[in-house]
Amino acid sequence: MSIADNIKNLNKEIKLSKAKLVAVSKTKPAEDLQEAYDAGQRIFGENMVQELVEKYEKLPKDIQWHLIGHLQTNKVKYIAPFISLIESVDSLKLLQEINKQAEKNKRVIDCLLQVYIADEETKFGLSYDELIELLRSDEYTALKNIRVVGLMGIATNTDNEKQINDEFHELRVLFDGIKVSFFRKDEFFKELSMGMSSDYKIALEQGSTMIRVGSTIFGQRVIKHFKNN
Ligand SMILES: *Cc1c(COP(=O)(O)O)cnc(C)c1O
Questions:
Q1: Would you say the CB of residue 158 lies under 6 angstroms from ligand 1?
Q2: pTM for this structure?
Q3: Which of 64, 91, 157, 218 has a CB 3.0–4.6 Å from the CB of 84, allowing a cystine?
């Protein structure tokens, strides 16, 4: 099936849940993204800063770009002028740098805090304790040029659907608790990014508002040894 067909089918599937579809286009050529764009797709996710910037320069300017991979503080400046959402914030230090670069660009940058939910050592993210410590800190409260609009998580890469379901469920419960404790009056805190090609159906059942789907749209990726996938 074509990229356009894959997007159409996914949109049909997620329609009831009203979740957003992030087309994860890492490693794919700009032509593939253009094809998705022509089929109506406007949100794209990339995990490498340099690749994201190159594609941003080549492709239509109404695309909303999401960074979904581990971000080094020294690279924030390259995406700060245009990034729509940084989904993978995993430290206060990074959040402070995003705030600084956002201020330089006279804008507010939306972020998700990435929470570690998987039973694997390779996944980035904050533990529950670290998440709460961050949100309680004075350093965080002082940041005026970032906005935390929700949480992101990656489930364990396993065939065990019950385990994946449990991990997404836990993240959902955590999200609800964080909402009540820290963002009760903030309507913008509403995004729960969870689910990829192999597990987005389970994620939608657990209340995902944003699924990040790559191979189901664009086909399998050629294996490259990126540090974070
Ligand atoms: C690559 C990636 C995805 C998409 O993976 P697929 O299995 O191709 O759908 C989603 N989220 C993150 C963080 C990724 O790195």
A1: no
A2: 0.96
A3: 64
